[in-house]
Design brief:
210 residues; transcription cis-regulatory region binding (chains A, B); Arc Repressor Mutant, subunit A; Homeodomain-like_sf (chains A, B); HTH_TetR (chains A, B); DNA-binding; mainly alpha; TetR family transcriptional regulator (chains A, B); DNA-binding (chains A, B); homodimer
Chain lengths: 210, 210
DNA sequence: GGACTAAACGGACAAATGTCCGTTTTTATT
DNA sequence: AATAAAAACGGACATTTGTCCGTTTAGTCC
């Protein structure tokens, strides 16, 4: 026996944990629910809960895993089927999908960021998590495409930086602030991202191709 | 008696707390030092410590208050004495000063962000803290100046958004990652900020004033 | 079915954060 | 100097996170 399946009891417990967490989160808000309470509600021990999920962030990660997978697929699919479009439009499209996703899952995503692990650099930071890497990579490619269209070479990892900058602006906290603190609509926020990250690039492109 | 001064014993305790915290932070790293330990080291009770500083973030805030004040003054002074320069150059200058400051205080600033309070929008978030407001305001003014130079009107709060975007990219965590995770030098990071936030604006400007 | 092993269990325990409240000290007033 | 109110004190306590380890259970092999 080389690779064992997840044990039946373990699988059942995970379902119970996820369901209990979801219910409690909905009822009392993510921040107000302790791990202890989730374990109690699910009828499992502390250790059982913690062995599976090292912290609330891990748990949230699993809670949004399905939706994240779908998000990832949507983005990948969009990129494939829009391959013929201009990279600017595609950047705009991806940004729109990110914002839709954040709008949908903002509360859980915010917890992820806060409880996601170390602050120190290296593995364990958000910057090395698969979701971050995935989106960062998508942005890097798009930016490189845009630069290529404009015949502007990429100065040693410039696109890498810009992708980080975009990701930073996409943080759920800021979205919260714009959406509810300042009362902007989702569409208004998308428009701002477009104006700043896409249209400026587009302007450059127009000028560069003259 | 209308306004009382801070009591003598309280003032002394605050000094002891700050000094103890600073020493312990230096010795063991900010994350490794508990509030309990700081209280013990300072020879005061838990309650005394917590009444003054609601959490470690508050304490760090006080620890960097002096340096923040100086930073603020440096920025204000720079803006005054560079009033004749182009807004692009001034934006670059301010960005440089921010990065210098982050580089200097990265560890404490990172704690501030993590432990700074609520995630929910409204007062209590980073976005409403005086330091954030101050820098955000500085960026808004500079961006408006740039737009004015280019004869581009500011579409309803566009500058506000861009300022948030810049602030987001200035988060200590990302700086850490670039600096130590990816091994970039401080100057390289400054160069990236300049290239993305200043030179692109400058390119636009050149084109717009043709 | 019996036995063995790896995985999972769960609750006690440790450590940290943050609160509460009876007690002490400072300070202004007389 | 006595007094009283305001402010500060401090440690016990509650809550939460996270760990440890002896015990139980599912899956496999015979």
């Amino acid at each position: 026996m080389q690779l064992r399946e997840e044990r039946k009891d373990a699988a059942e417990h995970r379902q119970r944990i996820l369901q209990s967490a979801l219910q409690l989160f909905r009822e009392h808000g993510v921040e107000q629910v302790s791990m202890h309470r989730i374990a109690k509600q699910a009828g499992v021990g502390q250790g059982t809960l913690y062995r599976r999920y090292g912290n609330k962030g891990d748990l949230c990660m699993d809670l949004i895993f399905d939706s994240y997978t779908k998000f990832k697929e949507r983005v990948s699919f969009y990129l494939e089927q829009s391959a013929a479009e201009s990279p600017d439009m595609r950047l705009d499209g991806v940004l729109g999908q990110c914002i839709d996703y954040i709008d949908d899952k903002a509360d859980l995503l915010a917890v992820l960021r806060t409880l996601g692990g170390d602050q120190r650099p290296g593995p364990g930071t958000v910057y090395h998590s698969p979701p971050y890497r995935f989106m960062h990579d998508v942005f890097v490619r798009l930016i490189l495409e845009i630069k290529q269209t404009q015949n502007r070479p990429d100065g040693a990892g410039e696109a890498e930086f810009v992708a980080h900058a975009i990701m930073a602006a996409l943080c759920p906290d800021l979205y919260f602030e714009l959406r509810f603190g300042q009362g902007m609509s989702k569409e208004q926020i998308k428009e701002r991202f477009r104006a700043f990250y896409v249209e400026r690039a587009y302007t450059d492109q127009v000028n560069a191709t003259r």
